[in-house]
Design a protein that fits this description.
By secondary structure, the chain is an alpha+beta fold. Helix content is about 25%, strand content about 60%. It has a three-stranded antiparallel β-sheet, covered by helices on one side.
Length: about 70
């Protein structure tokens, strides 16, 4: 039987896909066995009336060892 744990992160990228990939990549630097990223919220950052980047509030799930 395995046990999973969930943490919340905020990640940014030039695209939505980039923001999600950054969340997974950065979380994987300090966590082992990352299995999924669930996006709860999306923000578009605006400068001079244009969306310049995206931010996601995400839950990262990883499996505990042992």
């Amino acid at each position: 039987m395995s046990i999973a744990k969930v943490i919340e992160v905020i990640a940014e990228g030039d695209t939505l896909q980039g923001a999600i990939e950054n969340a997974a990549r950065e979380a994987s630097k300090t966590l082992k066995n990352v299995r999924s990223v669930y996006v709860e919220g999306i923000q578009g950052l605006v400068e001079n009336g244009n969306v310049t980047s995206f931010r996601v509030n995400a839950k990262v799930t990883f499996v505990l060892e042992g």
